[in-house]
Design a protein that fits this description.
Elements lengths: L3 H130 L3 H26 L13 H11 L1 H6 L2 E7 L10 H17 L5 E9 L3 E8 L28 H11 L3 E7 L3 E9 L1
Parallel strand pairs: 1-2
Antiparallel strand pairs: 2-3, 3-5, 4-5
């Protein structure tokens, strides 16, 4: 029978063998783990190289895109400039043609006014001579008729003289709300006599417009005059003033007799008037001429026996 010492010695040797086996096994696992780590490290390095190459390609592509975007922007700017240049050239050419045409018309009107006034003076002189010679009742009636027509022609010459000079854009600004009050006050007496009421509404903070006061006053005066002339038996004129970022909108409506549909295309033509004896038909022509100089919008809508609305868009 083995002694106790031999027993523990054998156990120690057994444990030592087990420890060595575990150590060998552990070393083998460590080696396998190191191999896997090395393998994964190589894969990671390969992936990193691919990522760097991809990032480089992306960077180069972005640079190319930026260059293309710059070229695109440059091309757009160039195209816009070319379009604007062509547009401006077209406007200038149209302006030259219109100015030439207007100058020819102005010269023609000026000469016509000169001859008209000369003939009016001759007729007035002959009328005075006839009034001294002819004393009969019938002769006086005829002479009075001649005088009335002479006065009418004299007024026509005065109206035409306004068109004998070109309308020029004038510097200046004016508040349309305030100016309309001034224009209305000048018509108070005649509006009262004709039983016409005016209602005006304007939003707060109406800004000034880039039009001279004299020109805008002519426009407002003509529009108001046309409205009350369309209401010989009385009525209502409604004025609204509003504004946006770029424009100020003035709207004038009346409850007059309105304009028949077939006459609407003629309303702004010279010598077209519904006032029979007193009208020359220059009011809206004058208005349009001034508004065109300032690049303003002008629109008329009307319904017979209901009324007329005039809309004017003015630049801020």
């Amino acid at each position: 029978m083995k002694s106790l010492t031999d027993y523990w010695r054998a156990k120690f040797v057994e444990l030592q063998h087990l420890f060595n086996d575990d150590k060998k096994k552990s070393n083998l696992e460590k080696k396998e783990l190191k191999d896997k780590i090395f393998e994964h490290t190589a894969t990671i390095k390969e992936l990193q190289a691919k990522i760097e190459e991809l990032e480089k390609n992306i960077s180069e592509t972005n640079k190319k895109i930026e260059i293309k975007e710059e070229e695109k922007k440059s091309l757009i700017i160039q195209t816009v400039n070319e379009i604007e240049s062509v547009r401006q050239e077209s406007i200038e050419n149209v302006s030259i043609v219109e100015n030439k045409k207007n100058n020819e018309e102005i010269i023609l009107i000026s000469e016509f006014v000169r001859f008209l006034r000369k003939d009016i003076g001759n007729v007035e002189g002959l009328t005075r001579v006839l009034s001294e010679i002819c004393k009969g009742k019938k002769a006086k009636i005829i002479l009075n008729t001649i005088i009335e027509h002479t006065e009418w022609m004299s007024k026509l010459a005065d109206e035409l003289s306004w068109f004998s000079e070109p309308v020029k854009k004038e510097d200046g600004t004016i508040n349309p709300d305030v100016l309309f009050d001034e224009v209305i006050s000048e018509f108070e007496e005649i509006l009262f006599e004709r039983n016409i009421k005016i209602s005006k509404s304007a939003v707060e903070g109406i800004p000034e417009v880039a039009i001279s006061k004299d020109h805008l006053k002519i426009i407002f005066t003509e529009v108001i005059r046309n409205s009350f002339d369309a209401m010989p038996k009385g009525g209502l004129i409604n004025i609204k003033i509003n504004f946006s970022d770029k424009n100020i909108l003035v709207e004038v409506s009346d409850t007059g007799r309105g304009i028949p549909v077939h006459l609407m295309p003629k309303v702004a033509r010279p010598f077209f008037s519904t006032k029979k004896k007193n009208g020359f038909g220059f009011g809206l022509t004058r208005t349009r001429r001034i508004l065109d100089v300032y690049n303003c919008q002008f629109d008329i809508s009307s319904e017979e026996d209901i009324g007329t609305t005039v809309k004017i868009s003015l630049p801020r």
